[in-house]
Amino acid sequence: MLCGGNIPLKKNQIANKNRRAFLRAVPAAAAGLTIAELLPSLALAQTTPAMSEANFQLFSAQDLSDTIKALTAKEGASNSKRLYADKNFLVDLWVEKTNTGKEYEWHERRDHIIHVLDGAADYELGGTPKGTHANGAGEWLAPGIEGATKVSLKKGDILVIRRNTAHKRTTAEKVVFTLSAPVTPVSS
Questions:
Q1: Residues 6+ apart with CB under 8 A from 82
Q2: Among 11, 41, 73, 104, which is disulfide-ready with 166 (CB 3.0 to 4.6 Å)?
Q3: Under CATH, which architecture does the 61-182 domain have?
Q4: pLDDT category, 54, cuts 50, 70, 90?
């Protein structure tokens, strides 16, 4: 492919639409282009995200079903599998059978988004923790709490728990849910 004054572009330069690659691939002076001619291309390069498989991940219904079956078959009251993680975000799939959290927990750098896929669970949220102790950097536990709000979740419900909010889950029978957690990375 040719651009401007017969300057050939390499295939990877055509596919990469970010502004820096564009400016490296087509120097304005060499191409004989004016700023007015460059502006529409620069605007497109800034608003069109570069798409690649690294930008998304699909978990098919069949994959999730298979994972849920495997987690259900495992021994233990609470089993999970990390589906996705990077420094800013994680997604876990949980299968829990008759279980009560031992302590309330909360996190300085993580929110929780819980989406119940099947079953039911109760959460105790907020309040004033009693007997607080650290469980790692920015992670806290407390055996008791005063003034918590109780909510019951069932299939289809979504609960958002903001960072620094104490919470504890109780599952009477069985619950299957995803836990998504936006994370603020630790500063270097």
A1: 90, 91, 92
A2: 104
A3: Sandwich (2.60)
A4: confident
Rounded to an integer, what distance in angstroms lies between the CA atom of residue 11 and that of residue 41?
A: 17
Higher-scoring residue by pLDDT: 121, 12: 121
Give the helix ranges, DSSP H, for 32-145.
35-47, 61-73
Alpha carbon distances (Å) from 142 to 99, 100, 167? 18, 14, 10
pLDDT of amino acid 17: 52
- 65, two tokens: 């079903």
Task: From residue 116, give the alpha-carbon distance in Å to each of 95, 157, 164, 174.
Answer: 10, 6, 22, 11
User: For the segment 125-135, what is each residue's pLDDT rounded down to a tens digit?
Assistant: 999 999 999 99
Stated pTM of the model? 0.71
Residue 137 phi/psi, 5° resolution? Answer: -65, 115
Average confidence score pLDDT of the chain: 83
CA distance 140 to 99: 20
